[in-house]
Recover the amino acids of this structure.
């Protein structure tokens, strides 16, 4: 087993300096932090003074997600756990229920366990109270980076919203309604809507205001009757696939056929959408890939003092049978 003295020798510093770096208990230059952490990682050294002796307890990564029941976050979480376990870490999980107030409490609970670092999906990184205090190495997942937290793994949600809308426009739709959870609970949904607005305005169509509903309400009870009568959309874009399924259920309860009467599309590419008849038109996000990338980036930052990075992962438009081509006369 490697010793602190060996780490200090390899890093070219004193034992006291190596101890300050590994136990986070004193001022050290960024360059020295990188050298000591790299030496410790190469030697397989673990500082025994952190939280609980690592001989008895594995180091852990803290993960915050909005919902453990949404398949999108479940896929990311599974790949995070796989990557963490491969690196000898366990995973601590918390959820915010799309509530900014719960985020801060959830992160505080994770910090109590003194994790190696954090992977966070927050409602809005620019306003999140969870990001207002000092944190260990942190990677934002699905959120855009901020000045304080520049490490992030994200798809281009704005571009995805624009591309999906362009697809509907190409199919002859101009009255497109965007339905979403509250934008204050998801910057992903807000960016997708802004991309939708951009695409509509680019061809001279005035976009409808988004219909915003709580993310955590039961979508089985979704009632769109008033919005359909008032706006008469030919197509509806939901801010995620679970909501798209709820929209389709609501339309069918009101006697509408999908896609003959009203087309429906979503975002995420969850498996159940592919199993539907007809398959859901959606923008597929590589959630498992994003989770693995976030875990790898965090471990590299925490263990090797690697520089922070913003990784943009590609999405893919997946046309399905829930969007009707109005250009084709039936």
């Amino acid at each position: 087993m490697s010793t602190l003295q060996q780490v200090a020798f390899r890093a070219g510093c004193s034992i006291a300096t190596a101890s300050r770096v590994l136990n986070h208990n004193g001022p050290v230059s960024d360059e020295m932090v990188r050298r000591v952490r790299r030496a410790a990682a190469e030697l397989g050294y673990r500082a025994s003074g952190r939280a609980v002796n690592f001989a008895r307890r594995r180091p852990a990564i803290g993960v915050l997600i909005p919902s453990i029941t949404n398949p999108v976050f479940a896929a990311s979480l599974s790949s995070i756990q796989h990557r963490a376990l491969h690196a000898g870490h366990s995973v601590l999980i918390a959820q915010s229920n799309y509530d900014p107030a719960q985020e801060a409490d959830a992160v505080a609970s994770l910090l109590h366990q003194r994790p190696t670092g954090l992977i966070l999906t927050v409602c809005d990184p620019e306003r999140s109270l969870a990001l207002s205090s000092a944190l260990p190495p942190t990677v934002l997942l699905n959120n855009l980076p901020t000045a304080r937290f520049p490490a992030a793994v994200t798809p281009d949600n704005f571009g995805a919203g624009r591309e999906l809308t362009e697809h509907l426009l190409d199919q002859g739709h101009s009255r497109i309604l965007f339905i979403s959870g509250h934008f204050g609970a998801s910057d992903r949904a807000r960016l997708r809507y802004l991309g939708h607005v951009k695409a509509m305005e680019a061809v001279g169509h005035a976009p409808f205001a988004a219909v915003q509903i709580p993310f955590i309400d039961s979508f089985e009870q979704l009632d769109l009757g008033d919005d359909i009568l008032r706006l008469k959309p030919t197509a509806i874009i939901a801010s995620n696939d679970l909501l798209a399924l709820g929209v389709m259920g609501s339309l069918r309860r009101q006697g509408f056929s999908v896609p003959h009467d009203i087309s429906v599309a979503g975002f995420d590419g969850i498996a159940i959408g592919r199993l539907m008849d007809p398959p859901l038109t959606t923008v597929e996000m590589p959630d498992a890939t994003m989770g693995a990338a976030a875990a790898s980036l965090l471990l590299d930052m925490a263990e090797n003092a690697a520089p922070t990075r913003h990784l943009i992962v590609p999405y893919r438009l997946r046309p399905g049978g829930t969007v009707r081509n109005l250009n084709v006369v039936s």
